[in-house]
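ARCHIVE RECORD
Type: protein–small molecule complex
Small molecule: adenosine-5'-triphosphate
Source of inputs: curated submission
Record status: active
Notes field left blank by submitter.
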Amino acid sequence: MAQARDYLVVDELTKHFGGLAAVEKLSFSLDRGQILGLIGPNGAGKTTVFNLITGFLPATAGRVSFRGESLLGKKPHQIVNQGLARTFQLVKPFPELSLFDNIRVACYGPRFLSQGLDEEAARHRILEVAEQVGLPKDLEQPASALGHGDLRLLDIARALMVQPELLLLDEPLSGLSSIETQAIVELIKTLNQEGITLLIIEHKLKELMKVADRIVAIDFGQKLAAGTPQEVVNHPAVVEAYLGTKDSYASA
Ligand SMILES: Nc1ncnc2c1ncn2[C@@H]1O[C@H](COP(=O)(O)OP(=O)(O)OP(=O)(O)O)[C@@H](O)[C@H]1O
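STRUCTURE (tokenized, with ligand):
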């Protein structure tokens, strides 16, 4: 059984793009079963942190460990195999493929294949995750027929196919209506109750504060504050750098 504490540890993580320090000696940790929010202004380095943790980018320096094992230097598919899945800021489905086949694509990943799931088991799992996230019943329709909210659900469904222990969501609420937003907030709570640990980048702070146990705020790739949602949104450095005014998070 993995330790609950220090489940994911990011230690002095650094990424330079030429002369730009996108992430600079950033440290934080996430305990098993928790939801951690990662916030910061545009360009603060949040997506770069996700790309470093999930092996999409090599780090310049620092360490990342998951369940005590180092992730840096591993390929994205090896990291998925360890139980860590992600979604993307921009959802990019295969527009001509059906919803079913868009989810089925995840079956060709190594984690799924290594579990030896056959066609029938894969079909069962696809139907299960589609229902779990609340996708429309008609899974034969093409992804191009979906609105923005359902596309987000499709992206989450694909990530869930690999049965992750830790799920990284990159702005899951961006561009959604308030009804769609509520649906995904509820989904996040349910996934967490079912045992999934989550790391979530999100600009909609009011919603993030409803689900996050803790929040880390960054700017210019460096940590500004970390703590409970209330502590972080009221932290002077966060108020100044990210929120503009003390009251603005309420309308974010
Ligand atoms: N591949 C890259 N090459 C060069 N610079 C990059 C690259 N990826 C990101 N950057 C730069 O690194 C900085 C951090 O970008 P990043 O996308 O991580 O920010 P972010 O906090 O996710 O922003 P947003 O909230 O707008 O999505 C930005 O200045 C960005 O332009």
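CURATOR ANNOTATION: The longest helix spans residues 178-193.
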